[in-house]
Amino acid sequence: MHALTGHTRTLQIPSPYLLFLGDVELAGFAKTALGLRDWAPEKCLGELALPTARVTTGLAAMTPAEAAAKGAKSLVIGIASVGGAIKPEWMPSLIAALEAGLNLVNGMHTRLSDQPELVAAAERLGRRLIDVRVPPANIPIGTGIKRPGKRLLTVGTDCALGKKYTALALTRAFAERGLDADFRATGQTGIMIAGGGMPMDAVVADFESGAAEILSPPAAPDHWDVIEGQGSLFHPGYAAVSLGLLHGSQPDVIVICHEPGRDVVLGCDGFAIPSIEEAIALNLTLGRRTNPAIRCAGVSLNTSALSDVDALALCAAESKRLGLPVADPLRGGEAFAALVESCLA
Amino acid sequence: MHALTGHTRTLQIPSPYLLFLGDVELAGFAKTALGLRDWAPEKCLGELALPTARVTTGLAAMTPAEAAAKGAKSLVIGIASVGGAIKPEWMPSLIAALEAGLNLVNGMHTRLSDQPELVAAAERLGRRLIDVRVPPANIPIGTGIKRPGKRLLTVGTDCALGKKYTALALTRAFAERGLDADFRATGQTGIMIAGGGMPMDAVVADFESGAAEILSPPAAPDHWDVIEGQGSLFHPGYAAVSLGLLHGSQPDVIVICHEPGRDVVLGCDGFAIPSIEEAIALNLTLGRRTNPAIRCAGVSLNTSALSDVDALALCAAESKRLGLPVADPLRGGEAFAALVESCLA
Q1: What's the ipTM?
Q2: Is residue A331 very low, low, confident or very high in pLDDT (cuts 50, 70, 90)?
Q3: Would you state the pLDDT for residue B276?
Q4: Best label site of A45, A94, A119, B26, fewest CB within 10 Å?
Q5: Do A202 and B204 touch (CB under 8 A)?
């Protein structure tokens, strides 16, 4: 990691983590814990679950005191409740974590800092309550001034189709090739995986591109920031977030993320998903404003609904049609290697 | 004005106003008061100045008690201080206004609600402290769902070149033609002029287009909302605000605002101002996402630096070059009438 410049720092989360599973019964509500296990295993020491829990990460069970003895710095709430509340049943575990010397980390809408019992305990014990949806203070207005270092941004034809995992997979692939690369997180799960970042959707609009600028600060000329995209320029609710992130990131390279078979924007029935070609063209047109050298290295397809054979065939066909590398990063293989090479070309 | 729908209302300011000039010595620091006098004369009862003031609006001088007796509902801080602070010298006047029954209205960065003395007096007296830079709570995510009524948005090749005054002049011209038209304000001065609105640059990015949607709610089919633009799609700091406003406004008509002779983006030396044609094309491309029928009705030039003769000649030449009506709304005349007709065509 490179030192951040300027007066405002991005959010930073002390690690390693103890993952809190609470009383979770369905894996779908434990996405944060499972994502951390898969993408930040070096940060995850163990898990803490209530007796009623029906999901496990497979990591060692441990109490907050045991985790603290092994070096844990934070207990991460790795689950979501219906409605996003911090449930009363969780409180004894959260207090025990503070008492054991851990900070608390939360990515849900409800804030730890709005729970008087937790605030009192954290103050008494000198621990931090870290709500990762809360941006830092004093974010500057974006300047557009070009920063040294190389940057890649994952962008999408819609929300929630693989921009985070594509960025994580590319960061991992860059590191495996011996390159100096950082994953730059822009959403709550990504921020926990990275141990820091900027919750771009929670930043005041006037400071949106400025937030992206401090998220990926000036770096060595051969350093790569691989930046998690947010939303889509075509989304009637979230395009402002996407444009501020694109302008502030100044990407040299974009990778377009798309889910085959999704025809309509998530939650917006009247809005067709743009074609991959439209998404490439609009992102390049707008991205050129802060980086005239921006280029599209290829396409990441979320093929989780397809068989291996169908996924491979689709990537090959789309690659031929578009004249660009097309791969599902979570399937790896030669197609993904070609996408990685195209990013670095 | 049409009733706002949904649970969240935009900011509303009780009028008429008493304009507070404090100790202002230069007209440049009294822009808000002078703008209110020019564009909302029906809302302005009088002015209150300290003996050291060197600027006047020309309105009758009156004490808060005299203004309240004439029906005033709010004292508006019509000046800006260097650094945006609420100066100690102003405090006796502000307290006197609260005691006389007036609410306080402030558009500077410093908040009335952060001044303990004012908060205590307002609570004791049952008055409101209205910081117009603070957006309302519970703004929804934008849906993109098309709303009835006609909408015009002023957009620009840069910041601070006439988007507010163009929208005000068009609203006035529409009303003079007997049309039902509302000016919809998106910045602090505009909000005071309109008596309400949405401070778009202070809204959290995820809710930017949603804020624009509630700013111009569903209306009668022949009703016009004339919406004050913000920033520019080409500004490396503010484009997120501009895109959220464009998507949420769903304009049927845009008018491009431009200042001849300005070559570089305000405060961003490395960034050239786009051509008028580029600004038209990009606004239409992005605006089509939420209103496929969007069109550009013409161009508003800020010719304040030119002589009458030069301004007229430039508007005529640009109109011929672009094939669109081009006018300076503050100069009126046939060119402006043609621009108005084009908006309504």
Answers
A1: 0.94
A2: very high
A3: 98
A4: B26
A5: yes
